[in-house]
Specification:
There is one protein chain. The chain is of the alpha+beta class. The protein has two domains: about 220 residues, Roll (sex pheromone staph- cam373 precursor fold); about 110 residues, GMP Synthetase, Chain A, domain 3. Helices cover about 30% and strands about 30% of the residues. The protein is built from eight helices and 18 strands. An eight-stranded mixed β-sheet has the order 1-2-3-6-7-10-11-12, with helices on both faces. A six-stranded mixed β-sheet has the order 13-14-15-16-17-18, covered by helices on one side. The protein has a two-stranded antiparallel sheet with strand order 4-5. A hairpin with a 2-residue loop joins β8 and β9.
């Protein structure tokens, strides 16, 4: 019995070591990127100790957008040539919970406003009692190479902010939107507080820390939110700057106002596809703008395909019609769906003229 108990204790100690964010990986499995310009991954690390929290409080649109863009933004500060990427290990479950809870005497590291406080949403007249602004924190770790024993060399965080917060008036709940300038100001304040707290963790020390601010607010329920700010902190100093990022639905009046050229090109593609089959073919687009430039276009084509030939026809015509979009700096991804099932995926990468077509079914 004592031997069995000792084995169990040893396993628990090893598991705890994997999750404390302070272990140096001796001989990791390395996964080379399949796409040029992406990070090499370290495979045999512990899964994120807070993955279940993310799965509960992040919608699928936001979860994918945060992770993908956080990686992309991190390349500016942690080069793909000199760093390996792994899931965040510094914030364990207790640390994350302490950060997303309210600031108090017993929880001084809390990033949400103290209990009993009021939060000015930025219009000068609306104040929210006990606002919950910080929803989550997503972390990525960047490790050194073999000669550096795969030691921690950098950390990236995305602080996930609720831009729409609950307001109770005369017992009736409603939601109000925090103005972006006010949300950015609040985000920079707690971002600096997060950086100071992270420095108290022995595994972190003086490694560079990149902190981004992500708003979950969007103009449509099918769209992710957007990054509104970022800052890199080296030698315990740094500054935040604003981000201009936004997802927009196509077709829409907002899209027409922001980018009449892209809206016209999308309308041309949609018109060409709509009457190919006896049943209407639906075409919906989502475009992401970064600093007022279209960066990524996602198109979903919904059809009622009766045969493989019909699916193939719509797919091949779509591939030809992508020439309509003259902006080669924009990534284009198209899903062709029949009765809700994905039948084919097309992708035209940045700086390429022709798309890759993959039939899924």
């Amino acid at each position: 019995m004592k031997v069995k108990f000792g084995c169990i204790l040893l396993v628990l100690i090893l598991l705890t070591g994997c999750f404390n964010g302070e272990e140096i990986i001796d001989d990791p499995d390395i996964i080379q990127p399949t796409t040029q310009g992406e990070y090499t991954l370290i495979a045999n690390f512990a899964v994120s100790p807070v993955r279940l929290y993310h799965g509960t409080y992040l919608g699928s649109y936001d979860a994918m957008e945060i992770g993908r863009r956080l990686q992309e933004k991190s390349k500016t500060h942690f080069s793909i040539e000199q760093h390996y990427l792994q899931e965040g290990q510094i914030l364990d479950y207790d640390r994350l919970l302490g950060l997303v809870r309210r600031e108090s005497d017993t929880n001084p590291q809390g990033l949400n406003p103290p209990s009993g406080s009021t939060f000015d949403i930025g219009d000068g007249v609306t104040f929210v009692n006990d606002a919950v602004v910080v929803a989550d924190i997503v972390e990525l770790n960047f490790m050194g190479n073999a000669s550096e024993k795969y030691a921690l060399k950098g950390i990236s965080f995305a602080i996930v902010l609720n831009q729409n917060v609950r307001l109770t008036v005369n017992g009736v709940d409603t939601f109000v939107t925090i103005q972006t300038d006010r949300l950015y100001q609040f985000g920079t304040d707690i971002g600096r507080k997060l950086e100071s707290y992270i420095r108290t963790i022995p595994a972190v020390g003086d490694v560079p820390v990149f902190i981004t601010l992500y708003s979950t607010a969007s103009s449509d329920a099918t769209l992710p939110g957007s990054f509104i700010g970022e800052g890199v902190f080296r030698n315990r100093s740094g500054q935040f700057s604003r981000n201009q990022e936004k997802w927009i639905i196509l077709p829409s009046n907002e899209a027409n106002m922001i980018d009449a050229t892209l809206s016209s090109q999308f309308a041309s593609l949609k018109s060409s596809l709509q009457n190919l089959l006896p049943e209407a073919v639906g075409v919906i687009g989502k475009v992401r703008y970064i600093d007022d430039e279209a960066d990524e276009l996602k198109i979903t084509i919904n059809m009622v395909g009766k045969t493989y030939t019909e699916v193939s026809m719509v797919t091949q015509i779509t591939a030809q019609l992508l020439d309509t979009f003259e902006n080669n700096d924009m990534l284009i991804v198209v899903e062709v769906r029949s009765l809700g099932t994905v039948m084919a995926v097309l992708q035209r990468k940045r700086s390429e003229d022709k798309p890759t077509v993959i039939y899924v079914n």
